[in-house]
Write a structure and sequence with these properties.
This protein is of the alpha/beta class. Helix content is 39%, strand content 15%. A 4-stranded parallel β-sheet has the order 1-6-5-2, sandwiched between helices. The protein binds zinc ion.
Amino acid sequence: MVAVALLSPSVRGWIDTALNLAFPWPESVEAPPKPVVPPFCERCGYPYEHVPDRPFVCSTCVDREWHFSHARAAFLTEGQPLEAIARFKYAQEFFRLGQLTDWLAGAFDQHMASERWDGLVPVPLFHRHLRARGFNQARELAAGLGRARGLPLRDCLKRVRETPSQVGLERHARWKNMQNAFRLKGRFDVTGQNLLLIDDVFTTGATTNACAQVLERAGAARLAVLTVSRS
Ligand SMILES: [Zn+2]
């Protein structure tokens, strides 16, 4: 892992720029975590106000071919969770991992613990990005949750295509961008397994859905998604 103290001035400058872009309003960084609480969409887990007091699927999900049964997150991607995730990923503040894992474990207990899971599958990074960052935040989170809840880590996916930045792409382009970006690593057999995909943030779901599609085609029985936060 790369210590911040060893980073060159240009890399430090890039991190500062990234954090400034992520947190244009300093006071918003201090905002306490906002839990994702019902009512939310049964499929994508997006919280809605003013909906009937019964299970529902949102209009986005009606049109979507999800390859996972449901996605859940601990918090909205803002305030303290956003700060913790960004500083963990971009500023190598590894002490954040304990808090992030605790948040993820809380969401697991609340939304996923009633089912049997055969393993936790982290969303992979492209190898060049992995080398540049030094670690995959999703793998660290999945390993931490696995230790906390006695579930095996199944680091069974690889990203075989570098997907250009999603920023600025229309939704349709984001989804096309992700097609065929992932593969199952050869030594893994996921046939009949119930697998929980783990990532730090759920935004459009394009990334986790592409991962779920690979696992579904490989014969996984049940797939769901758990993230620290969601937009
Ligand atoms: Zn939905």
